[in-house]
Amino acid sequence: MAANRKLLAAAAACVAAVIGITGCSSDDDGAKDPFEGMKADKIANKASKASKNSGSFTMKSEVKEGSGKAVGVFSSVKGGDCKATIDSPKNGHTELLTVGKSSYVKAEEKFWKARVGSTVAGRVKGRWVKQPSQGQSSCAFGDMFQSKKLKGLKRGKDAEVDGKKAAVLVKKKGDETTTFYVAMEGKPYFLKVTNDGDEKGTATFSGYGEPVDVKAPASGEVVDQKELAGL
Prior knowledge:
Elements: H1 3-11, H2 13-16, H3 40-52, E1 56-65, E2 68-77, E3 82-88, E4 92-99, E5 102-107, H4 109-124, E6 128-132, H5 141-144, E7 154-155, E8 159-161, E9 164-173, E10 176-183, E11 190-196, E12 201-206, E13 222-224, H6 225-228
Parallel strand pairs: 6-13
Antiparallel strand pairs: 1-2, 1-12, 2-3, 3-4, 4-5, 5-6, 7-9, 8-9, 9-10, 10-11, 11-12
């Protein structure tokens, strides 16, 4: 069952295209530019490494869905464990967990009815559906901060994200513009990514290096995907 992967892909579409950004400089108060003389793609690679090596992060993603938007909050650790909630006009409220080699999804009945029919939807209502994670977490760091995708970037005017000084890099490809914001103070972590194209969306990042408590659901709250195969 690929329900969790599809949900995650939809909610995080704005960062899936190219995730990574650069650090830049501040012109306002004469503060030193931490990336002075550095080419945009090299700065992007530096930011990618810093974020990937942070150990953990939280991402809030807002992606256009019909006349509304899907909002997802994902907290992930480097080992691959993660937890997420997604609120979607189409699918309602959904929760995702990846713990070790297993993934779990709990969704509203309308989500399951559309995918597996009324019989199974009634069986899993209010419960977690367990399935193998196939050795790859839905919130994998490697997928989120792939520096090899950060090519053809140009440095823009510095900005602020939630009161933090941010460097800006812009990537244009056809009718699509992706704008990246990276912290200019401390480590060059990604702060925000916006995408203006076929898939409009915004992703903001926080909680780098902070503990993420991810636990498997209690066994009484879980139904294994294999148990549903015969229904």
